[in-house]
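Escalated from tier 1: alpha-D-glucopyranose holo job.
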Amino acid sequence: MALEAAAVRSRAAELLAAHWDSERGHTYPNLTTYPHQWLWDSCFASICWAAVGRPDNGLRELTNAMSSQFADGFVPHIRYAGNGSGRGPRSDVSSYTQPPIHAHAARVLSADLALPADLLGRISAGLQWLWTKRRTPDGLLYVVHPWETGVDDSPRWDSWASDFLGIADWREVRWTRESFTRLDLYLVDETIFDEQGEAVGSRVFACAPAAFNALAAHAAAEYAALSGEREWERRAVELAQCIDAHMWNPGAGLWSDVPIVGGGEDRHVPTLDGVLPALVTADAERAGRALDQLRDPLRFAAPFGLAVVARDHPACDPAGYWRGGAWMQMNYLARLAALRWGRTEIAAEIAAMSVAAVERTQFAEYWNIETGEGLGAIPLTWSALVAAMLD
Ligand code: GLC
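Tier 2 regenerated the structure:
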C-alpha cells in the first residue's frame, strides 16, 4: 500500500474532526453539499470514530442519529440542521428511512465501551418498526423510495423513471442526476404519509431490495449478539432464508430485488447490492459465486474499485453517480461480507483499492473506477471508513 496505515488513520481523524459539529454531536457528510445529519452516514461515521481511537465521539454520533426516532420506532433518514424540506411534510426530519446500519455500528463500538440501555432500546425499536411496518406477505422488507436504500440513482430504478417520464426505450437513455431528481420528487409526491409524516406506502413505487434486506438481516444478527435476545437471531435467519428463497438469480450469481409496486423490469441489472446477501446467507456456494465477482475485472473489480454496477453490463458508467463509480461505504460492506466467509484475499484487495482511492481522490464521495478521479462532494466523511479496513 502506498500510504502507510498510520497516515491513513491520521488523515481520517482530521476529516472527521473537520466535519464534526460539537454542539449537535455528529458529523456532516460534507459541509456544503450535505449540511444535515444522515442516518447511514452517521452510523458509518461512528465506525470511523472507533477506527481512529475516538469511540466516545462515535457513541455520541450514533446516539444523535437515533434521537429523532418516532414513538412507533421509525428512524428518519435525515435530521435537518436548521429547516429542511423536500423529503415529506416535516421540516425537522425526513419522512423516509435508510438502511439500518445502527446495529452493526453499535456492535463495533461495543468492543471499546459499554452501550447505554436507551441506545439498545432504540435499535431494537427501529428493527421492530421495519419488521412490523415494512414486510411483504413473503416476509421480505420493502422500501417506498430509492432514497431509503441509500443507493439513490441506481439503474435498477430506471424502469420506474421511464414510467414517469413516458419513455418506452429507457435503456437507451443517458440518465442524468437532473432526470433522477425529477423522479425523486415525483416519488415524494406519490408517497403516502401517515398523520405524523412517516412514509407508509407509495402509489407508484415499492421494492424489496436485496441489499436493504441483507443489511436488515445482518442488523438483526448484530443486535441479537449485543443483547442476547434469541428472537432477533431467529428473525435474522428467517429473513436470510427469505432472501435466498425469493431473490437468488442463478444466471448472474447474485441476488436481485423483488419489485412490489410498479416498475422492476431492471431488477436484474447486476449491482454490488446484489453481492451483499453474502453477509447473511447460509449457502456457501451462492456466497462464493457472488464474492468471486469482487475479484473479476469483468464484474466489480476495477483499477479503482469496487464498481457498483458490473463492468460488463451496458448500464455501467465508470464515473456515474450510483451507476458505476465506486463508493467507500459499499467497499466497507463488501469487505465485511468477504470476511464473513474467510475470504481474506478479497478483503485485502478491497482495502488496498480503498487506500489508493482516498490518496487519489482526497476522500471523495465516489470516484471513477478506471481513473481514480474523485467525484461528487469532496471530501465526504464516510470515506474515512478506509481507516476501519486496515488490518
Ligand atoms: C446521497 C447518497 C446517500 C447519502 C447522502 C449523504 O444522497 O446517495 O446514500 O446518505 O448522499 O451522504
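Residues 29, 34, 38, 40-41, 150, 152 surround alpha-D-glucopyranose (CB under 6 Å).
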